[in-house]
Amino acid sequence: MLIGIDVGGTFTDGVLFDGKAVTAVVKQPTNNLDLKNTLLQVLDELLAEVDNQAIHRIVLSTTLVTNMLATGNVEKTALLLLPGPGLPLDTYRLFDHTYFLKGSIDFKGRKTEAIDRKEIEQAVLQIDALDIRKIAVIGKFSNRNSELETEVRQIVLNMFPHMDVSIGSETAGQLNFLRRIVTTYYSVMTQSAWDSFIMEIENALQAREITAEVAVLKADGGTMPLNLSRNKPCETVFSGPAASTMGAVALVMKPRNTVVLDIGGTTSDISLLIEGHPLYASKGARIGGHYTHINAFSVCSLPLGGDSSIIINNDEIIVASSRQGSAACFGGDYPTVTDVFNHKYMLGIGQQSQSSAILCKLIAGTDLDIDNLCTRVEMIVLERLQAAIETMLREWENEPAYRVWEVVNGRKFDVQEIIGIGAASSAIVPHLAQRMQVEYTIPVHAAVANALGACVARPTLSLKVHIDTQSGYYVIDQEGKRGSIPAGKNMQMQDARVLAQQHLAEIAKVRGMDEYSGEAEFYLEEQFNVIRGWNTAGKIFDVGIQISPGFIKEYQGVSR
Amino acid sequence: MKQTALIFFPAFDWAISPTHPEREERLLYTRDQIFEEGIMDLPQIREYKPRMASYKDIARVHFCVPDIDAQITEAHLVSAGSALVIADAVMTGEVANGFALVRPPGHHAMTVAHGNRGFCNINNEAIMVEYLRKQYGLQKIAIIDTDVHHGDGTQEIFWHDPDILFISFHQDGRTLYPGTGFVEELGGPLAHGTTINIPLPPRTTDVGIHYVLDNLVLPILDEFEPELVVNSAGQDNHYSDPLANMCFSAQGYAVLNSKLAPDIAVLEGGYSVETALPYVNMGIIMAMAGIDYSNLREPDYSPAQFQESPRNMEYIKQLVDTQLANFRGRAAVIKANRLKYPEDYTYYKKIFYDTDGIHEEQSTQLHMCESCAGYRIIKSTAQHRKLNRVLCISVPTYGCPSCQEKAQRIYTEKCKEARNFDYIYLQDRANDVYKCTDTAFSSQTVL
Fold this sequence. Notes:
With 560 residues, chain A is α/β, with parallel strands linked by helices. Chain B is built from 12 helices and 17 strands. Chain B has helices at 28-37, 55-59, 68-71, 74-91, 124-136, 152-157, 206-224, 250-260, 277-288, 310-328, 330-340, 401-417; strands at 4-9, 45-47, 63-64, 97-102, 112-113, 141-145, 164-171, 195-200, 228-233, 264-267, 344-353, 358-367, 376-384, 386-395, 423-428, 433-438, 443-446. In chain B, helix 1 crosses helix 9, helix 7 (206-224) packs parallel to helix 8 (250-260) and helix 7 runs parallel beside helix 10.
């Protein structure tokens, strides 16, 4: 038996899945002040249906870290940055308690300026005086050479052994110093809270005598063992939309170009599947207005849902972006988008007559008749959704390209299908699909697709190896791994692939996901001859390999 | 605040040959630098996707022998197309300005294209300029060629065009490829003074180049009043460039772009792939986007490293005075030329394609029109694969009805005769129609 729980902003959803069928579903309002208890309540309700020993996998998706970052309820953290030459320092002064230090590395990983011990010590004394115990050290090009970051960390720890110091190269090894700063900073400041959350969950499970494998869902739609997620709290941000998207994929499982539309009460989340594979945000997850190195699905959120209220203002019909309560057909006091579709298409949602009644009340005293009102509201809703979808498609088609073949072959996203999930999708999606002249599916369990998506998602892992045979080293963009290449070694692309594969397998083993190593695919293969004078002085390879989002092996679809 | 458009197109899957300076590695470290800085994440920058230029865009500028397919690869179409994307972004007002950081380059490619010269097959800036005229009706455009090599291709393409101001500063042609770009090269008889060359001695520094900018380039731009300024942005004036001998720095480039404030910059040469390009490209992007570049420097740079010699400064000052006078006196010279050559003006030249080892012989007959820049007839012969004898008839973009009509008539007549030439071309820019007749088969293609 598997359990998936998605703690969302408004509701927490849980499913119990026996490998073929969903055997129990729970939906509860989320108490944002006590996410752990909300989660455990949902868990206990599910456990009531089954023997605890029969559970062999639990996957959690939670907004804990997202909430912490949004509310600023985090630990004070100082930044020691080694920006070297380039953009003005102010570009990198994104947060309070930022200190700039000497010392720089260039793109080849060469040290071009040494650090200044005095300067570091002074900064650290100031940080200590502010009672800050968390420090993030991040250098430009530290992903190519982490020597300076490591030296700075050592100096800090020598002075104050109790301080908690993280370095950028171990947290975010991809190119982009700005995003490395943001990612490391957010990781450091949420780590302790995430750590206690993990402990509480582990204790709670132990108390319930559950020995199942426990994992958390990441923003990239893959899972990670709960106990190994300690250093990577930020990877759990935006796991909610990822859960929904994975749920849609799990429920439909067709290799088509698909729009996944998750229409909830207050918002609609749109994501795209390219031949069945979820599309990633090209610049990483965006948190607090900053880009990060966190892999996340590309999701467009619209402030438009089934509970969006309908207002008439000077004869103008407005679909408000706010929610004033549930739909009239469910006993709410205000006319909503759901009521309009319910009345117009006689959907029989809740008490359909209440939908009609509240709409009649709304037009009383205006020149509008109810049919006009419904037609107009439907048009506004569908137009807004379609415009957002089309913007997303165009943005994907117009993403920058760096190779000739990418430009020559172009990109075109022809929508073949819309998958509607979330409570309000069954009312709206059929009409949107008709308007866009594409097929649609509202899968069974669409209302808890998120929780189902979480419970059957498999672990993911993505890494890039950068090999520079001229300089005699390689670096992996995960966990700060690096190694040397014997001087004069003549490497071919095949050797580079093997190296990447070995490292993937190694990390996969540590993360308890060896069984998926064989399914890793190369997503990037670049090779450059390094020519000095007219002779080949070496080669540079960039090879990317990943275990992409998918489903655990036992998952073969949902029968009912 | 309006953004700066950027297309970064390193063509990581294209090279002239594996060890050629124009190879995949050329913009690799620039990629590393601009991606690591995170400059594309800044609100000041808007990154665009390249597109492919159309054959018609190319035919508006070039006579490709025997046809366009023979002279280009897909990479050339993408590189030229990227400049067009930037042009669109600037002209529609989506952005304040834009930089096409692209390869392959183009500024050595001339009107008639038999092969690759100086790493160039087709001329990205010229294709963009004619596109701007056709698409947006622009007339007066200035191209400032800041590559260390003389922009002989761009110069040749606009040699007879008084509405295109072409200014090139470069290392003296006596010491560097392509061996042209001397003070006396001032433009055709009807476009005298709108080609300005500034040959600089080897080892000229930031100081010398900025003197030229402040005292010659900027004053001329003020007087010419172009609707658009293009920087043909080579980066090989840099002190570390392996193919040239100048002493310009990344700071120098950034200051140059701040002062010049081009609407559009298009990358040209620059082959110091590690020690110059990452920093110079950053400098250009930052300057165009109005980002403070005082923290930008090459790791090995020290301001005191290069000193401009007094003798050199003396020479530069004289050069500036001479060229300013040439520019300001252009109307009188054109008037005199009309009297001197009342009907036609004909000249001969030989062109060497260094990359492909092709020798071309060419004669040009310019019609000295009273009311437009005049149509041209170019006869050109070169051996590549086989002997190619071609006749090219070109009508200027703003050519008068009489020149259009005459050019069309000559094309028709010559195609009927079908003697002496393997291919006959008509480039009717006024009507945006481009024809080619293969005389062996009497077949015509029209774009």
